[in-house]
Amino acid sequence: MVIRPRSAAVPFLLGILPLLAGIVTGCAPETPETLATSPGPPGRATPRALVTQPVVALNDGAAPILALPIALSVDPRGAFVVADRSDKDVKAYGPDGRRLRAIGRPGYGPGEFVALATAQAYRDSVAAFDFLGARISVFDASGRFARALPVRFDGVAKTWSLRVVDDSLFLLVGTPMGAPESDLLALVRPDGSLVSSFFNRRRYFEGDPQLIQRTAVLADARGGLVFAALVGGDSLYVFDYAGRPLAVHPLDPERPLVTSKTLLKRNRGRPNDRSGRSVLDGNRIIIDLVALDSATVAVQLVRYDARQGVDQLEGGTLVVSALNGGAVRTLARGQVQGALLGRDREDNPLLLAYGSPAGDVHVVQRLLLPERGRNR
Fold it and tell me: Which pTM value belongs to this model?
């Protein structure tokens, strides 16, 4: 049996920045400084079980196989768009799973990637983000490079990832490394103009370099709401598109996480114990977050291995939550096989799982959701 490389689907920032090799969380919730924890609904409803449904197996044919998938989306024609961090390109598959084309390639020129961070279907095109190039590249429906958009704004942290929002905006997700006092999220229009910037965590970091280099940001937006979380944190944050805070809620109310901040403080700020083992090793982290309809979000949690890394495609805990009347409630929770990497055109979560022991076949799965909450 072929041994699969670990860290295959870990969010890009964890893979490209060695300083983040110890990102993690783990058991008592920590109340954020700037938002009040949203009240739970009257009575505690039991979260429903999760049900996954196979959609299609991806078939690369004679082309190079999908190696390190980091994002999955569906275009208006039903094609699956997958960002491949290893090959530094975007692979498109038809509704039947057969490879259609590869979009982009490694390099420094137009339509090329030095460090591909993510890619998603955008209208009838594809938008991809290069972390080191700090630009969004847009490719047309045939996969040809159309244009590039730089993404640097005063007061906004350096972008490490991107989400397409409602086919009309881009959500820039920043890294606190190098700019811990800056806004970590920004919404921009396709022409590059800024709509809003928000999610400043200066008070949380308290200038602690160990905490800063062990914290990443995950965020997504849909239908007027932005959902965000810190990798190494314990809370889900909800904002509107103007950046106004609406609610904050534990990422996993059933098994609350311990923050990296707490674990580091317990060890007097040192990242390793006396044996040299990371104090963050073995704890549970949020590893991806996908906004669904205008009020619902899915997050995936895994146990972090500081020595071998994490392969998200091996699965973990999935929690589906919804904003309802100003409060966040958990709709469903359970274990899944596969990586939460995107959503379909009906706003159902999409997972990508291994379809063979060698890891050379990937299967797209759809998560069937229970009744969702409503934003208003």
Answer: 0.89
